[in-house]
Amino acid sequence: MPELPEVETTRRGIAPYIEGEQVREVVVRQLRLRWPVPGRLKTALCGQTIDTVCRRAKYLLLRSSAGTVILHLGMSGSLHVVAAGTPAGKHDHVDIVFTNGRCLRLCDPRRFGAVLWTTGAAETHKLLRGLGPEPLSDAFDTDHLFTTSRGRRVSIKAFIMDSKVVVGVGNIYASESLFTAGIHPKTAAGRIGRVRYERLVRAIKQVLDKAIEQGGTTLRDFTNSEGKPGYFQQQLQVYGRAGEACLSCSSRIRSLQLGQRNTFYCPQCQR
User: Fold this and answer.
1) pLDDT digit string, tens, across residues 38-67
2) Catalytic residue chosen out of the listed positions 55, 58, 102, 105
3) Rounded Cα gap, residues 94 and 97, in angstroms
4) Catalytic-labelled residue, pool 2, 5, 135, 185
5) What is the pLDDT of residue 221?
């Protein structure tokens, strides 16, 4: 599944091509995605100019004066900017065609993505209004994480993957951040002190920043808006490396199941 760095990479990839451009038509070949594509999207968006392309958590927001398109890439979705009239493939479900001759195309083989429309403030949409702070924003800091964690018995890995606590820290980046901070993933969130949370906040920001610089992580399906893979996988310290030597201490990386997710850690470096 595309995580925050992959979605941010996509945002940066498509924004220069569609910001300030007028929509000529919307082509919907498959109405049934994770949620039905709204029938009013075609008429509501046509003639509108995309003012900005923003991201909130793993959602992309295409803002216009009439409303906002809310896009989610689901498990295997991707967005590409192609020339209008380019023949559609089997899994190319939605096109937003612009008067400049370009087309923003959603490809989603598993159809777990979403294309929605809202005329209200996007931040108040039911999918967005309960989300926690962005991990790369000033709102995500030691005080927030420490205060929110008090009394929580849930594992620290599950805690930082909770989108109500902080958005966009998916399975890969949670494992990598906890390794960088030296925290065992099973540790109860409420038992971690302020100093260790300071290290964890710093680690999350560092890991996500580095992943965005590298264009995300390619594990299965992710390619960016130009069809190129992300390269952060080459820098993974623990994720997917069970049985291999830790790059810091040479101990064997271990894996366990937490919340039905594979979790990777170093038993020596993470306590």
Assistant:
1) 999 999 999 999 999 999 999 999 999 999
2) 58
3) 10
4) 2
5) 37
